[in-house]
Amino acid sequence: MTIREQMEAFEKEYYDPSASFSIHTRGRDVQEEQCDIRTVYQRDRDRILHCKAFRRLKHKTQVFLTPQGDHYRTRLTHTLEVSQIARTIASALRLNESLTEAIALGHDLGHTPFGHAGEAALNQICPDGFAHDKQSVRVVEVLEKKGKGLNLTWEVRDGILNHRTSGRPSTLEGKVVRLADKIAYINHDIDDAERAGILSEDELPLEYRKVLGFNIRERLNTLIYDIILNSQHKGDIVMSQSIETAMKGLRRFMFANVYNNPEAKGEESKAKKMIQSLYQYYIENINDLPSEYRFMIEELEEKKERVVCDYIAGMTDQYAISSFHDLFVPNAWHI
């Protein structure tokens, strides 16, 4: 019996019956020989962790555009916090921790430079629209490994696609990540907003603090414990009504006071114009795209609008700024 088979047997013995068992996966689009050591979801986690799109997350905006400080979250640190929260919940509920981790690590791979500002810019200008959840799936199915994709299991891709508030994940592990994403960004964005001087702890609505806690640690503990206690043996991932209401209220407060705050978002209009200028330039100058993107248009007959979106969405903040500078800002003349 291989190590993988031993781990699959352990899953059967230890996991909750409602968990996603590795041997019951709906599989990959392209069948592969099984690994002797890792389960299918462990392989998926490793593929995401080692892909280029994952590494680029360290230079992509979470909330504050190009902040001057070492401790503000990036899209990568957000992803790691989501993974940690999701794994804690999955482990306590005896769900498949490897599947949970794979979904969490991959959920934002398709995010644009400059966070949701970049996403909104591409969504406005691209004829087919743009959404980072769908783009994350496109990254793992098409864009990575020079068009071959990562060939992930159906369950991981389903969880990535459905991680947003409106999503409906097909697995409990996907539902865990969907809630962990919100728990992570609400709390770490409060922390970053306090660091930036946008708000203070005492400005948070008292009605929500009384329910969830009076600091980041207390709120994280409250939310995580509530999900675990209310989801055990339920066949679903749920929160108590009072905690869920308070979390949603705090989320609304963050949208009104941070995510849409003119002081915090003052540079976003510039970022949007930059993204849209880059899009228009490459639509008109396809030959200036890197060869792998031209190949997708010329040989694979992908729509140029989609491929240009792929290229720009894959940029880091600094690469987008550098590209814009090279294309549109004149250099000083010198001998």
List keywords for this structure.
335 residues; 16 helices; 60% helix
Question: What do these coordinates show?
Answer:
The chain is mainly alpha-helical and 335 residues long. Helix content is 60%, strand content 0%. Helix 2 runs parallel beside helix 5 (97-106). The protein is flat.
What's the short story on this structure?
The chain has 335 residues and is mostly helical. The protein has 16 helices and no strands. The longest helix is centred in the middle third of the chain and has 24 residues, at 172-195.
**Into which percent range does the helicity of residues fall?**
55-70%
* Class based on secondary structure composition and strand pairing: mainly alpha
Note the beta-strand portion.
under 5%
Nearest-angstrom radius of gyration? 21 Å
Helix and strand run: HHHHHHHHHHHHHHHH
Count every helix, treating DSSP H or I runs of 4 or more residues as helices.
16
How many β strands by DSSP?
0
Please report the distance between the alpha carbons of the first and last residues: 71 Å
Largest sheet: none
**Unreliable parts:** none
The overall average pLDDT, rounded, is 95
Silhouette: flat
